[in-house]
Write a structure and sequence with these properties.
Blueprint: H1 12-33, H2 38-49, H3 55-64, H4 72-96, E1 100-101, E2 104-105, H5 107-111, H6 113-132, H7 136-158, H8 166-192, H9 197-224, H10 227-230, H11 236-239, H12 245-255, H13 261-271, H14 277-288, H15 291-310, H16 318-332
Antiparallel strand pairs: 1-2
Helix pairs in contact: 1-3, 1-4, 3-4, 3-8, 4-6, 4-8, 7-8, 8-9, 9-15, 9-16, 12-13, 12-15, 15-16
Enzyme class: transferase
Keywords: Magnesium, Metal-binding, Transferase
Cofactor: Mg(2+)
Length: 335
Amino acid sequence: MTSSTTFPLADPDLADRLAVRLALVEERLRDAVTNVDPLADDASRHLVNAGGKRLRPLLTLLAAELGDGSRREVVDAAVVVELTHLATLYHDDVMDSAPLRRGAPAAHEVWGNSVAILTGDLLFARASATVAGLGPDAVRIQAATFERLCLGQLHETVGPRPEDDRVAHYLQVLADKTASLIATSARFGAMFAGCRPDVVATVTGFGEKIGVAFQLADDVIDLTSNGDVTGKTPGTDLRERVPTMPALLLRARAAQEGSSDEDRHLVGLLDGDLSGDDDLAAAVAALRVHPVVEDTRARAVALAQAAVRELDPLPAGPVKDALISFADALVDRAA
């Protein structure tokens, strides 16, 4: 059971409050995925039981500390964002053919694609039922977030148009597919804690930027860490031809006049047959030591710093400090 935060907090009272509320969110999550149908129950519990960092509900609870974090609606909102996130994971793993998720077999590997997709839909339904109790504004925000999630996945799947800048296209995909829900997590926390509209806008902007930084850091981690750390097979995105920032930056370098033989050779390696584990491992090993990985890491750090600047209007104190630590922790994973 998740009972503590995933990054250190300097204020012990804040840490204790968040730990208690995270434990309550975890309990509510397990209740929300319970189903009388045995198959639906097993499939729905699969990713909840696999654990996870619970970053989105943590951000909801943390942003709520800028107001009255003890309100019941805050915990409900935290459950909504995590249910929504879990639902997207079921769908993403089918689309990416990912064999592992959080160190366990992906749901589609256990029950097949159709059951995995329908389980994701079921979790979206449970999230909708919970958010309906938070009022029409919450429903509207959730619907807009869901729309961005779908658009991000759609644009990733279809890819950029010939005239599009591929890096800019990818950053927009990350903004929609990842940052939109992280921004909503912070927004819901401040909103349901009774914060002023300007405070809600501040943490929403923070969440939007840190969400993109988070995914860029993940692009680095996917290449530089082993599967024991990520719970995923390293290089899965390369195998499935899913664009990542390091690969996009490499392709841009290789397309330039006077590009190096090394860059062009590595692009050829990525475009080759990566179905075999040895071939995939060789491609990952070659890319992980290329300068584009450090470039991606630097972009993540710069975005995290921009996210922290969004917090300037907030008063100094343990909550602001914790939000800054949250931003640092997301990108420090890629160090």
